[in-house]
Amino acid sequence: xxESCQNPANAGWRVYDGAGLRGASSIRCEIxxxxxxxxxxxxxxxxxxxxxxxxRATRDRITIxxxxxxxxxxxxxxxxxxxxxxxxxxxxxxxxxxxx
Length: 100
Known about the structure:
Mean pLDDT: 83
Number of domains: 1
Number of strands: 7
Number of helices: 1
């Protein structure tokens, strides 16, 4: 959030490609489980790192905070209450025509 859709910093972008949510340090990600919990979605995925090819499992929580904005948080627990007080990273949604 707070950056141009056309020229975001590497740490400031994520791409959902229909299989998973990847960033600058991952080649591909594949979501293997999702669970809706109120205003947020808890999901787990396997991602292949772009720098060494290792596959890593992650659990993250996405919370929609506005029509074109969401917060991404590495999940600490199974419920939103367990993640309360932790801060995530805010993102703006950029449509296909606005992506770099």
